[in-house]
Amino acid sequence: MFVIISMLISVGILGFMFYLAKQRESTLQRKYELLVDLRQVLYLCRQHRSATHHALMFGEHRDTELEHLADLLCEKTNHLISIAHFDNKPMYRVLQLKLKALIKDWSDRTISRNQMIHGKAIRHCMFLMDEVMLAWLVEVNREDLSDEYHMNWQQVIDAMDALTQFRICIEDMNTHEGRTRLQHYAEVVTRKVNQLTMVSPLSISAPACTKALLVLSDVIQDPEYSISAEEMYQMTADISLSIAHVYDHMLGELTETLYIPLPKLLIA
Fold first, then answer.
1. In this prediction, what percent of the chain has a pLDDT beyond 90?
2. C-alpha angle 208/214/216, rounded to 5°?
3. Residue 20 in this model has a pLDDT that exceeds 50
4. Are 128 and 153 spatial neighbours (Cβ–Cβ below 8 Å)?
5. Which residues contact 227 (CB under 8 A, 6 or more apart)?
6. What pTM does this model have?
7. What is the rounded CA–CA span in Å between residue 79 and residue 175?
């Protein structure tokens, strides 16, 4: 009888341990999927910003591309809402509403307004990703990784905010006041981006980013430096992509340490 009871207890303990393992795997999988989807939404927002900027600035017709991006954003946010924990679903519904407004009204905005609206949506995605990652690190008791991640995260956000302010100045760069602001933020962007070298040297030393930083240096040193708005936006797009690569590098290293590597981004 004692043997039977011992076996039942052992089976019960094993069953409970298996249940806990399944629950843990389910939690890890959900967090991983949230990061993968948010990462894709972030990329799609960047694509939408680029397409609408070119349409507003240069009259390019990108209706087909923008419709495709809108469909993908809707699809991804629907999936995010479906897999999010019940308590967190409202946050993803807010993101979806922001993106729907962003998609619907872009043609009525000025270039600087369009930049700000897209910038807010991109930062919203990043803050949601940050929340998922921090919760994940807490759950697995990796405070050592959490402190380093938070420090690097803040540097990425600071660089993005500085670049957004710089881009807003481009529209007025042919005025004296606008050029003064442009030079100021060129200095800020240069400093913030160079700080990211400590986080991901390869992302910042990429040829396109290096060339863009040289242009910023020229803008800082020469108030009369001649460059078109189109060239300026392209230069900032290269810097923005490098900042995004830094954050993606951070996420990739962490998810590989905690679970499995991130998949390649799906090109829209």
1. 50
2. 105
3. no
4. no
5. 215, 218, 219, 235
6. 0.84
7. 46
Angle at 93 (CA atoms; ends 91, 94), nearest 5 degrees: 65
Burial grade of 106 (CB within 10 A; 0-12, 13-18, 19 or more): buried
Over the stretch 252-267, which tens digit does the pLDDT of each residue have?
999 999 888 999 876 6
N- to C-terminal Cα separation, the chain: 65
Q: Which domains occur in the chain, in start order? A: 30-111 (no CATH), 140-268 (1.20.120)
Q: How many CA atoms lie within 13 A of 40 on its CB side?
A: 24
Distance CA 88, CA 94 (A): 11
| Spatial separation of the C-alpha atoms in residues 106 and 15, rounded to whole Å | 55
pLDDT tens-digit readout, 76-103: 999 999 999 888 899 999 999 999 988 9
Task: Give Cβ neighbours of residue 199 (< 8 Å, ≥ 6 apart).
Answer: 152, 155, 156, 246, 249, 250
